[in-house]
Design brief:
Two copies of one chain form a homodimer.
Chain A (H helix, E strand, L loop, with lengths): L8 H10 L1 E5 L4 E3 L8 E6 L2 E6 L5 E7 L4 E2 L1 H6 L6 E4 L3 E6 L1 H10 L1 H26 L3 H16 E4 L2 E5 L4 H8 L3 H13 L3 E3 L4 E4 L2 H9 L3
Antiparallel strand pairs in A: 1-8, 2-7, 3-6, 3-8, 4-5, 4-7, 9-10, 10-12, 11-12
Helix pairs in contact in A: 3-4, 5-8, 6-7
Chain B binds a DNA duplex (30 and 30 nucleotides) through helix 7.
DNA sequence: TTTTTTCTGTGATCTAAATCACACTTGTAC
DNA sequence: GTACAAGTGTGATTTAGATCACAGAAAAAA
């Protein structure tokens, strides 16, 4: 677990002993928006999405947590309620540290605290980017930005091109971007026609023209 | 300065001695997006907006910093470049702590570190809310949410009603919400007709029907 | 004060994306 | 393997908000 990589063997063992382990099936909800936090949660296997349900019934996805990512640090320290629901995107195994244990860990190991701050900072920086791109209501720009964001986490050089193993269905992508599913479909089809991307099955996207994608994400068409 | 309220007299004096003081006139830019950070900056007097300029020339306002607020903690710790420009909304006096000084302060006074984390958490929580409300492209909802957000910071009981001293012009508000200025104007006029709000001059809004405003911010019209 | 500039409101028009509707495809369950 | 469900693509239509255009108001400068 990269987060605890800095801990020595003993500290690591002590920590492991304290943790609660849980498994969730695909589609199961780990915490519901408004619940009391179950604790600081590290996703060992699988992945999850964090979302809020809006007044009109849509779900707005806020974060995707890949394997080895974690959640709960922020709202464990400041809030008494969970600000979003977290649902497993695939079968998942997680480790949970209670609030008291987590705070003790931070107090004892300031390296871990620093890493948490850094992760928070990165998420903020992403949220700021999202705010910027949502400010413009340009669907293509938002899609291009999303693909570039996913590239780093889910992309892999596959032969000549970069392939992204999407963590979400088309519907999920639309909910992440705050777009209608149909709009996403149409725009992606259009990007495929233009030779920027190529879909390989439902959950894989191949980037054919990275430079063009970067342009789309920044320039006006 | 509330941030340093926990420091004892000595520590406070030592800190004050280290700080650089600067003044900015209304409209002056304190830091430009992309610059090297000037340091951790506390706004003693006046207020400021943090924004990014988008490809199409619009400015997307990300944060408003009122007096006694601060910025720079997040990107001082993780990034080498300033992620947004900060411009004084009124004549402003600021205190600046260099990166080294700031890090030393955090190391010595963990209470301050905790307060910073808390502030970061609050900003994240606001960004998440913004992401949710921007996901729905409903202008009225976004305006209502903004007014409620400002209510806490800039609102004051004035006789029977709550008055908000807006920190931004209509144009600024529109840039904060990612709306066209005209749309904001029209919607606010409509809300005024409906008796939800009342504008008192350009920079003051009176909330007449708080309950209705809260409904608008959450429910579909 | 007068002048100039910036800001704001409002009508007319345009447009990108939402919504509706439905066939098709893929995946899961039985 | 078949049956059912969920997910997806695509056309037709609607609509909220953007854009354009301008006049009046307010603020800043002279």
């Amino acid at each position: 677990m990269p987060l605890f990589a800095t801990l020595d063997r003993e500290a690591m063992h002590a920590l492991t002993a304290q943790m609660t382990h849980k498994t969730f099936k695909k589609g199961e909800v780990m915490v519901h928006e408004g619940d009391r936090p179950l604790g600081f949660t590290v996703i060992r296997e699988g992945s999850a999405k964090a979302y809020r349900t809006t007044f009109d019934g849509r779900e707005q996805i806020l974060y995707i947590f890949p394997a080895n990512d974690y959640f709960g640090a922020r709202f464990l320290l400041t809030e008494e309620k969970v600000p979003y629901s977290v649902e497993a995107l695939e079968d998942a195994k997680v480790c949970i540290l209670s609030k008291a244990q987590f705070i003790a860990l931070l107090a004892e190991h300031s390296e871990v605290a620093l890493q948490i701050i850094e992760a928070m900072a990165n998420r903020m920086s992403r949220l700021e980017l999202v705010m910027q791109s949502m400010g413009s209501r340009n669907a293509e720009l938002r899609i291009a930005s999303l693909l570039l964001e996913f590239k780093d986490t889910y992309g892999q050089k596959q032969g000549e091109y970069l392939e992204i193993a999407l963590p979400l269905s088309r519907e999920g992508l639309a909910n992440y971007l705050g777009l209608a599913r149909e709009t996403l479909s149409r725009k992606m089809a259009q990007m495929e026609e233009e030779g920027v991307i190529e879909s390989v099955g439902a959950k894989t996207i191949r980037i054919l023209d990275l430079a063009r994608l970067q342009e789309l994400s920044v320039l006006v068409e």
